[in-house]
Amino acid sequence: MKYGFVLLLLCAFFSGVGCQPNESHLVFEVEDPDMTASGSPVLEVKLTEVDASCGQCQFGMPGNGCDLAIRMEGKVYFVDGSSIDGHGDAHAKDGLCNCVRKAIVSGKVLNERFVASEMTLVGLASPSAVMEEN
Fold first, then answer.
1. How many whole angstroms separate alpha carbon 125 and alpha carbon 52?
2. By the 8 A CB rule, do 121 and 52 touch?
3. From its phi and psi, is residue 12 left (phi > 0), alpha (psi between -120 and 50) or beta?
4. Among 4, 9, 38, 2, which Cα is nearest to 110's?
5. Theoretical Cys-Cys bridge with 119: which of 69, 79, 82, 89, CB 3.0 to 4.6 Å?
């Protein structure tokens, strides 16, 4: 009788083990497509005229060397997706290290950088600026 009672308790215990509810209680946070991982908004830019130049030489941005940057609505951004050398000789008289040029851009501002999908300098002053742009 004693063994029967222990056997009955063991059966009751093992029959209840592994019984878990079928639904999950995990909560996943989905990233908002209009926000970056840091929580800053993504700004879409479509065919907008901006100032383009060397971030360090003309816009006084931090860094070593010469990197392409744009000034849009009073704020300056380094550019990803295009390079300073992709728009002619940067150190020519009319190059981006020596003057600020107008450009038409499309892309997005992401994590305080401008990611260019399209960038074209306008009002080219000399053939040296056309060299690598076309």
1. 14
2. yes
3. alpha
4. 38
5. 82
List beta partners, residue 77.
70
48: β partners = 105
Largest CA distance in the chain: 105
For 102-118, the pLDDT digits (tens) are 999 999 999 999 999 99
Confidence (pLDDT) at 52:
96
Place of tokens 């107008």: 102
Q: Are 68 and 84 in contact (CB under 8 A)?
A: yes
What's the pTM value of the predicted model, to 2 decimals? 0.63
Q: Are 116 and 106 in contact (CB under 8 A)?
A: yes
Alpha-carbon distance of 105 to 47, in angstroms, equals 5
Alpha helices in 1-134 (DSSP H): 2-16, 127-130
**Amino acid identity for residue 50 in this structure:** V
